[in-house]
User: Fold these one by one.
Assistant:
Number 1:
Amino acid sequence: MDSTPKANKRIAINTFIIYVRMAAVTVIGLFTTRYILQALGVSDYGLYNVVAGLIAMLNIISTAMHTTTRRYINVEMGKTNGNLNKIFNISLLLHIGFGLFVFFLAETIGLYYIYHYLNVEPGKLSDALFVFQISTVISVIGLMNVPYQGLLSAYEKFAQIAIIDFLTALFKVPLVIGLIYYPGNSLRFYAIGMCLMSLISFLLYTYACYKQYKPVVSLKFYKGLSLYKEILVFNNYTALGAFAYIGRSQGATMLINYFFGTIVNGAFAIAYQIENYVILLVNNLSTASEPQITQSYSSGDIKRTFNLAEKISKYSIIIMLIIIFPLNIELEFLLSLWLGQIPDNSLIFCRWILASLFVRSLAAGIPPIIQATGKVKWFQIIGSTLLIIGIPISFILLYYDFPAESVIITFLLLDFGNKISNFWLLNRMIRFDLKHFIRSVYIPIAYISIALSIFAFIIHLIPYTHWGTHILVGCISLLYVIVISYAIGLTKSEKDTIQQKISKK
């Protein structure tokens, strides 16, 4: 395993590329969401998210396969006699099987739920069914895309991934323009457009892989059930984590729909869209480092594995603070700029989502280690149980007339419990040095948080309403969190490295 500065530089370059991709996709997403919301209305926007969420619920096992595929390709790349073509074809065949399974579930359980339990406005059932069928097609196309995405990620072709994702996201612009001027059923038009986006992504990823790695992606059937079984067993435990995450997010959407209807669903969807954009900040840094962590661990370089995990965790928390701190300070102003008129409940949903995101960023470097060890069984069983019990707890709270945001608060507390369980299990399995991790990561973050809390308290004592003042306060908040994070959060060697990079540039 290459542990030289060249490998670390590659992580930094890949991280930068991923963040550029994320920024471009986020800008397009934020720009288009405002007009999609205006064209569809809050109720139809909520309806689309509820129905599309049903497919996500049915797609749990295959969603986990994305992580499994990346992991096995990375491990195979670390072997001197690895057979990537075998891993790819086994993965592709499994995805075809999952696609058929998801289709079966959609046409049975999914349709039963829509006909019997979906809380939809009168006259909208036919639209809900149409969106559901289109979402099923989107899901199956996405399944076929996973092995190709995993291959490019394993080869660290993040620049190509960025270009493909940007081109796919760019398709949203003509989609929104068409949506604004389309005289017919806007909801169905939007669903078809999203299906075309998924198809474009699949074609671009497939083309990129065949152009560069034709021997790897050449279709071939491999006999022998042992590797199929090994991948499926690993994936099934990983699927527990996917079930917990998707089950809680989409399950929450269904609970909100059941107790409050599609209008509150629309507000809830706005908050979760912010979550999806912001959580990419943590996931992207983890994604860029995952090949290095996996290959470091498999080659026996445990010291570098833990060092990378600590750095990724600390940097992820700092990046999250840089985003959510000024965002939270000026959240109401920014929502009004983004959406025009803020749907009821959106503001309180978004504030609790930001708090939840901070908790979820507290150990971003740990999951890659867990995946690298291959010992995922108890991590997934305990962690998934802690997460998924949020659904029955939330149901009980809503049943007894607690407010809708109590769902997010419940998830936040369970997320924190999940982090604790991860550290406890990791320490038992591979003697993870938790004390060193706390000193390196959490002590500096605690000092930063105290400084930010004092600043936020002072800002909220000052009354202001002019839009120019809101922008000024937002900029000052951003600058403040960057300066404080640099001064308190980084070690002397990390500061010296940054200063040297700046001097060279």
Number 2:
Amino acid sequence: MQLRYSFRLYPEPGQQRALARAFGCARVVFNDTVQARRDAHAANKPYPTSKILSASLITVAKQRPERSFLGEVSAVVLQQALRDADTAYANFFASRKGERKGPKMGEPSFRSRKDARQAIRFTANARWKITKGGRLSLPKIGGLKVKWSRSLPCVPSSVTVIKDAAGRYFASFVIDTDPAADAAAVPAPDGDSCVGIDLGLNHFAVLANGTKIDSPRFLRRAEKKLKKAQRELSRKQKGSKNREKARLRVARAHAQVADARKEFGHQLSTRIIRENQTVVVENLAVSALARTRLAKSVHDAGWSQFVDMLEYKAKRYGRVFVQIGRFTPTTRTCSACGHVDGPKPLHVREWTCPACNTLHDRDVNAAKNVKAAGQGGSSLRNVGKTKPPAPSEARHDVKKQEATESRTRSRAA
């Protein structure tokens, strides 16, 4: 299993210029690769192979005056940019053929020096190393100061240097880990504990045991600061230095929100994984919910990021991770007797089961049903295979039926 360990970098001014030069050279090779393949497609010719592109766009290009600057950076950086273009085209064709899951991917586009994220990658043959003083030594860049927050468990296979929109530099190391060793290092919870998690907006997560975790609402809390920074940015003249300074302030404000949300997700997911052997969540249609009037709150919650953390940590530490179908009626089903009641509007936070007269908290009941569905509970075993009608469709059917009955009565009269 491969994991990434990310650490903050603090390059000196000369090293920042060397990194900017490396970012630019990698971008040029990537764009030249995309252009070469577009030209081949327009001429109805087969796409040139990576070997041909490597010779023409890197080896031969260095000897031309207009591309001589490519020789100022490590050749590994250029080769990895070429591989990135190959991967992008492979994903594009796999998506067109239906072999790749997820939304359809478009054709690779050109990279810009104004992109929010710049990155270069060094593999083992680039001869990068971590010095005894704790610096990251990169070819033709030098020793970069690293803020080590933890030690690396083994020798990394590659390192990616990233510059984000806020102007911060990071080193991302790829580490090969053994899930069996990681699972043995973390003690298993007592018994065969299982937890069902219902994700929401009023509370970020509600567990089947009744625990409610408040939603931090990081974006909502920082909205005033973000609005002020964005307003100042809009007043600056385009292309000026003051506008660049204002842009950095906006980017840093957004980075603080994203970092706080990520840290919250890591802490909560780690605690849940350590305390439970089986974790069950609902497969939410986040992309669809993000197109509703609750879009800002849905994005602020960060459900997808949290679920991804649960999934990879469960795999790493030997836990069982289960996702149930999104159409399973966890809210409408009584967790005590299994009776499926009618739809529940969002303002209904408690309801009483008409079959067994049990008073349910909406979110706790849903979390219990999520847990039962993940364990193969009898009450929800065969539920959720078909999509129930949406409330708007149900109202439309009732109105249509009422109109039909009205016409029938008028004709009879």
Number 3:
Amino acid sequence: MTSEERRSVSPFFVLLTASTGCAMTVLDTNVVAIVLPTVARDFRASFADVEWVISTYVLCFASLLLPAGAIADRFGRRRIFLIGTGAFAVTSLLCGLAPSATALYLARALQGASAAFLLASALAIIGHSFHGEAERNRAWAIWGAMMGLTMVLAPISGGVIASALGWHWAFHINVPICALSAIAAAVFVAESSDADARRLDPPGILAFTASMLGLTWALISGQAHGWASPSAMTGFIGGGLALVAFIIAERVQERPMLDLQLFRNVRFVGAVWAMFAYAACSQVMASMLPLFLQNGLGRTALEAGFAMLPFALAMLAFPYVGRLLGRHLTSTGILAIGLIIVGVGNALTGWGAHLGAWPIVTCGMLVLGSGGGLLNGETQKAIMSVVPRERAGMASGISTTSRFAGILLGFAMLSGVMATVVRSTLTADWCRESCHQASGFADAVVAGDLPYAVAGLTGAARDVAIEQARNALSDGFSAALLTASLIALLSALAVHRLMRNA
């Protein structure tokens, strides 16, 4: 098909192709969250390994989104989309073929880098293909609906895949989807580029990645080896120094990747913090809750997938509620209310986890998803509304990066809280009779490998051990959810003060 023929193709096919590329990154993240306990049991993996499977993907994704967008603009959006799609297919295949947990999370790092180029170029294609305000708004509305629908279907798909095909197919399923998406892009999408696209910022990219890696390393090492261990302290210090280096690198450049001048606007700071808090306290639960449902409550992967529906459906529906509220409330008010609802939802879910009461957990997930749905649409709008139009590209990049940084650090921190509480509880219980076995038992329980934890036990001893493990996991997840609740409520207060008083 010639370039002229591509221009005559219905824009709907362009939108569908680009949105499918975006949807794959969402689908993969949420499907993998469902199959993680199965992966841990198959590989006899530690909980640190489980955390890295999520964290390496998000780390590379978050670190490369801004440069990926610049590369797509400069070298061709369709070209980078095809490269990103191909790389995502290959790395997905590597993930599915991984022979160990270490090989899996290293492949996940490559998959996250591929996803950044896939998502950034797909968004750029949509932005370039729709020009009029009404046309563009309609396109983004359709895109948002597809992302929401993907979020609803992903947990169920993960449950079906884990139950019927095995966890490997959580990754292999991406390959045929990528092939179809690449063919559609080659046929329907015209090439476009921007000769004046912003330049790359290698010092900024490296420093930002190092800071996120250092902090993530510290949070994961802290729960595994102790929060004052040399490994954890090295991560905290290294991450902090890298963050300082990143700020310096951005200040001395004429055209930086991140313009720090934007942060002189207090309303912008409040809006960015709202995005970060939303991601760290609500969106991160797409990864945390499946672990709790399977490891803490003993649900199968399929049951956990369907159990996620209250959270996912509320996340899908409440952006529309937010638009209705926008007729009567300011953006500041909606952000504060959304964060308060997220805080209440986390607290309610945590209370249900502590009691082991499924109805309370379900209600909590529904409330949590409702608050997240309000914030999902409003956070991006709030950030874009407080910057000049000519800085919209930079602001959008900051918004997306803060979202994924929130998911990355939120998952590492909340997982660390959960693991620390579980280890403390189980070690205290088991040391009363068999202290030499306590550490190994606790490590296996934290990783979600209950069959391995109770291997060799029979009769009443096995039943008691399983009950202790379930109770400890419920208490650990309860502590993590209550921590998220506190962060969300404090963030609601901070965002309200920052955006109201500016």
Number 4:
Amino acid sequence: MDEHRVPVAAGAAEVWRALTEVVGRKRGGRSEAYARLVRAEPAAASGPALVEGSTLPGMRVVESAPGRRAVLAGRHFLSRYTLLFELVPRPDGSGTVLVAGTYAVSPGPLGFAYRQLVIGSGAHGKLVRRLLAEVRDRAERGQA
């Protein structure tokens, strides 16, 4: 569906720490309210962020390789989706590239309308880019 990349002037361990902190803050409040509204599974957060088996509202961590990769999956009545985070060393050794890829299936007419609203409007891309920028900024501040 979409993929976003951001170069980070920090090593993978620092980027992972920042990613865990940022994702961990998405665990309640509006996220859980939205998850309940769309009947997401799982609906609530449990366990530590980005640890295999833990949950966030609407997503379960199905794979976690600290410093390298995290895969989250979920579903609700309009869509089934996977969010992949990968940390890739920059070829010149100057840090890490943080990649976020989203893959989703939204079947039927309601799914099509949902996809247009979320993806077609640009809202999803904006939210993902904001999340990646926040992770980058935290990781780079951690290097100072």
